[in-house]
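Hey, sorry for the delay on this. The queue was backed up all week. Below are the sequences that define the complex (chains, strands and the ligand SMILES where applicable).
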Amino acid sequence: MVAPGCGHLIQPGPTRQSGLRASMPELPEVEFCRRSLERWCGNHQILGFSLLDPRCVRASTKARPSAGLAEGAELLSATFSQPPGPLLRHGKRILWRFGDRALLLHLGMTGKWSRQPSPHAKIRLELRDGPLFFIDPRLLGGVVPLTWQEGQTALGAGLGPDALGNPLPPLAGRRAVKVALMDQAVVAGLGNVQAMEALWRAGLRPTLPAEEVTGERHTRLDRAVQVQLLGSLQMLEGAEEITYVEEAGSTNPFPIYQRDGEPCPTCGTILERLVQSGRSTVWCPRCQP
Ligand SMILES: [Zn+2]
């Protein structure tokens, strides 16, 4: 059976452009960030850095900006003085190796790495061909300096399997399937947008109890998650930079996200909105019975 929505999943990848619209950082945006850093930096030595806002250097991804690390600049110096190695990703976290040290990168809600300067830049790196910035207007993201050994443990700590390329784990409990999909301890990388779009593609009602998503329903959802993630990655391909949907002047590339009151792209039924765990879910009452 073909899940509703599959037919218009893969849109032609845009040619290289400077302001691709995307949701706030979920797995595809974080993977885009990982690939961009790999392309820009490779294994070339970082030539210098400026810590423009010390609050972005944290002891852990859970630490608040007010708890910025006192020795942040020293730790960054010890890190960036070593040659960059591979960039690994698990869910929405990136681990960037520098010799025997590493940086855990966390984008939070509005973080991104960019070649363009911004008043919200928190870190500036000097590369051979110009500067690179960590930009984060709301400062909910940041960098965590660790040893390489600590970093390997921290990367996946507390997270379920990465959502991209791994089978969707069994879902349990009476809580809604959408809420279960967004639980990083169950499956890592899905946020509000990817979860709601995947459920629409799978034809599953977002309020369905997680434990009822078994058998054929689970297979359909598993496939819809992969199709959704790969489609989002493909949309980002070739882009120079991400502009989040929440940023001023951006447009929305998603079929149902923020489109309540508009017709469903598959069946024309008016899309509805509900709130689950404080987050908006848009859904189609006909495609997702
Ligand atoms: Zn529909």
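The first strand starts at residue 20 and ends at 22.

I'll add it to the shared folder too.

S.
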